[in-house]
Amino acid sequence: MEVFFINSTLLFISLRPANNNVEDMTVYEGCKDMPAVIICYLGLQFINMFLGIPANIMVLWLIHKNRGDSSTSDIFILHLAVLDVFFCLIPPLELANIVYLTTSSTWYVVRFFYGVKDSSPLFLSCICLDRYMAVLHPITFTELKDHRHRTVLVSVVWLVTLAYAAAKCVGNIVNFEKVFTVMILASFAFMVFCNIAILWALKQSGPGRDEMHPVKKRAFKMVVIILAIIVFNYFPPVALFPFQHYFSPDVFRCYIHYLAFGLMDFSSSIQPVLYLSKEKLQWKPGPCCQSDNAE
pTM score, two decimals? Predict the structure, then answer.
């Protein structure tokens, strides 16, 4: 029995007879009796590519355009967008690997890409930490407002990301999938804690939400968006992977694996789209539309 890992969890298990003349099966052939989730997963990946790449590039352009009036979290959003653009390039190779190829060499590249994507919650955690400090510890936040501290934190996250991706690329480290489980659980718990604490603090800042300070209203909206991303995109692997052993190998590798990571990977499109909607990107309107944009 041979085990191959991708997305830091079980990709597929191929049970091969002793006869070495039997050709290796592709991942899709191994799940030919239950292909629905894999087909949906590949569809999501290509939507991710065609939507995520331009959306993330637009985020990069917007942050660059507004760099003189940027928020303290923009450095983390910028690097998260770079990471997502990098990840959104992988669907064609992944399609070939899943449907057509039986060689193991190309999985090294795929595993590295997914190792990079697996670490994206670390950048989201940095955004949550930045907002948490700004709302609940404003004095300390003001003292640490210099971007050098954030640059150091970004560098540390990239070092961890590349080290993790390189280790994942090797693909034969015993129990390496547990690293992802611990990382995603810790990141998820940390982000949920920060966001709930921020929401509670902001709701307590005035007798009603309508009386909230405009800056706090903007922070409130950002936190709600991040919390929605966390729950929708990252809760499935958090909820399912600790219970991996309760599923049969076939169900896990053909259903659970692709369901959980399909939702998580789609964050590469949802994150930039929600960021752009939050920023209310202004196109140059015609005369008939100018009154609608004057708020």
Answer: 0.80
